[in-house]
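Input (Lipoprotein):
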Amino acid sequence: MTIKTHRTHPTAPTTLRANPALRALTLAIATTCFACESEPVDDAPPSAELVVTPGETELTNLEVEAVHEYAARAEAVFIGEVTGIDYQLSDPDEDGAQLPFTVITWSVEDGIKGVATGRQYAARFLGGPVPDGKVLTVSEIPVFELGDRDLLFIEGNGERGCPLVGGNQGRVQLLSQGDAGDGVSRVAAGAQWPGRAAASIRDAGLGGGEAQPLDLSEPFVFEGPRVATPDELAAAHARHQARATAIQAAAGETEADRAERAALEANQFNPVIAR
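Output:
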């Protein structure tokens, strides 16, 4: 995973609070966020990886196992459409630093667990614009756009940088034919796949309940997990490489890819190079 700041001209934030500008993205902040996939690092990641098999009209046994595990861990599971994208800054921490967050709101089409059909549900993700015109992006956190339809497995909303079970595996994009995904999220195998996943979750008795909604009016300070060790960074990098999409795998490794890998290895897989 890489964490970057870059200048852009994003759509004007609608809920960006008038807090001081982001002061610094320190090494400690960056390395604590290395594993969106299993945050915090002391938590065990899901034992089953959610890998969606292209072209399958039915869920495979492995998919059923993963879907059930993800649903059991999740606070909220639903199919929904992105209807709002807003931005917030965390309150200053003890060092005075703030971080930008993006708040995604879905209209729930099928509330499977924790949220009712027809309701709105919001989740907060690390990354977004800051007042100086830069934007913080985190490579392993999914990118959402208005109108996106997803099957979501939400865990740690309001507490984690990436409130999805298994990190980006906790989002399954429901794409129309010819549409491209965000490059990190899972993609449903076909139009029938999400409905069958939802039915399987309900049949297993894993639906229902009510998730605590995110209170966007409450001030918050982001407390990331502890700083990752070099071995944990290397393991996270290896998992990321193993999860390359079919398109990425078919493209092969470019000279730029090799240079990036060499730089990561030389820096003990820490994505932030000290100046």
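The longest helix spans residues 61-73.
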